[in-house]
């Protein structure tokens, strides 16, 4: 089989995100079983235009706002007759979508992690969010003939509500990276600290700012509590606003930012933290919850995170989105009750061990093979 993989960024790009890791896992596993794979993606400063990695070719075409156009042209001119299936990420990050279904004359498999209306509204405001949600509806119409992969039952139901047929949407569950798995297998004597960690790409729609009033409320019960906001820095204005909010609420000395952590640094932070907090209004899955659980760290998450990622009362607690008091009380329980923490921690490790890319790949590759057979 000959597969063309359309990704936002490759694994060597310092700005890579979760969706990019997914596309890389797919490409390298296809190549490992003997398929012919080409990946098209955006470039980054100092990157060569063409490299061969893990048995497949990677072509870096341009910036995030030009790569989609160039990929379409390259497909028509160069790869049209050398491709059996196209694999793309439908929406993700601040980039122009590939919309391979508009020009590819072979089957398309599209990763669609969640519907984006709520994300658009929280990231860009109600007016722009409304307009972008209409664009998503147009993209959905373009993808009616594509095979879709999504990463939770809730996301599948949302896609079905947009008009997709159930037989064309398959659910898979992503897993933690091999680096984190190896770290979790090693014994550690790092003590737990009164740290709440919020982990992920630091974007407005993920509602990292809610962690600050949550911390202020928690400190009424646990004065030594601290908040670490860790992830890829993208919006310095948003971070400055959070710093201002922390000063106004008199918790600035207990709030810190940790940017661009390596997998090893991320693992160490999760191992030391008492709680991982996720305040996003919606997540397609919530892989950082699984990463935290891998190190025995319970998760307090909004009800926008997939139930498969956070099991209420078992691996942490689920709280209605934006319920500051509810978040603070849930975290207080984990901070203040060692027996509860140990129970949640043990359950978290067992839960996290149930997710792996090997398992996810079986579902993903089965869908890709199904699509290729219809070419």
Instruction: Tell me the β content.
Output: 15-25%
Number of strands: 14
Shape: globular
What can be said about the biggest beta sheet?
A: 8 strands, mixed
| Average residue-wise pLDDT | 91
- Secondary-structure-based class equals alpha/beta
Radius of gyration: 21 Å
Overall domain count: 2
- What distance separates the N and C termini? 11 Å
Q: In CATH, what is the class of the largest domain?
A: Alpha Beta
The CATH architecture of the largest domain is: 3-Layer(aba) Sandwich
Low-confidence stretches: none
CATH topology of the largest domain: Rossmann fold
Query: What is the succession of H and E elements?
Result: EHEEEHEEHHEHEHEHEHEHEHEEHHH
Blueprint (SSEs and pairs):
Layout: E1 2-6, H1 18-32, E2 36-41, E3 50-53, E4 56-60, H2 67-79, E5 85-89, E6 108-111, H3 117-124, H4 126-142, E7 147-150, H5 153-161, E8 169-171, H6 178-185, E9 195-199, H7 211-219, E10 226-231, H8 236-248, E11 255-259, H9 263-272, E12 275-278, H10 287-294, E13 299-302, E14 316-319, H11 324-336, H12 338-352, H13 357-373
Parallel strand pairs: 1-2, 1-5, 2-4, 5-6, 6-7, 7-8, 9-10, 9-12, 10-11, 12-13, 13-14
Antiparallel strand pairs: 3-4
Protein model, in words:
The chain is of the alpha/beta class. It folds into 2 domains: 2-175 and 356-373, 3-Layer(aba) Sandwich (Rossmann fold), CATH 3.40.50; 178-352, Rossmann fold (3-Layer(aba) Sandwich). 41% of the residues lie in helices and 17% in strands. It is built from 13 helices and 14 strands. It has helices at 18-32, 67-79, 117-124, 126-142, 153-161, 178-185, 211-219, 236-248, 263-272, 287-294, 324-336, 338-352, 357-373; strands at 2-6, 36-41, 50-53, 56-60, 85-89, 108-111, 147-150, 169-171, 195-199, 226-231, 255-259, 275-278, 299-302, 316-319. The strands form 2 sheets. It has an 8-stranded mixed sheet with strand order 3-4-2-1-5-6-7-8, sandwiched between helices. It has a 6-stranded parallel sheet with strand order 11-10-9-12-13-14, sandwiched between helices. A hairpin with a 2-residue loop joins strand 3 and strand 4. It is globular and about 65 Å long. The model has no long low-confidence stretch (mean pLDDT 91).
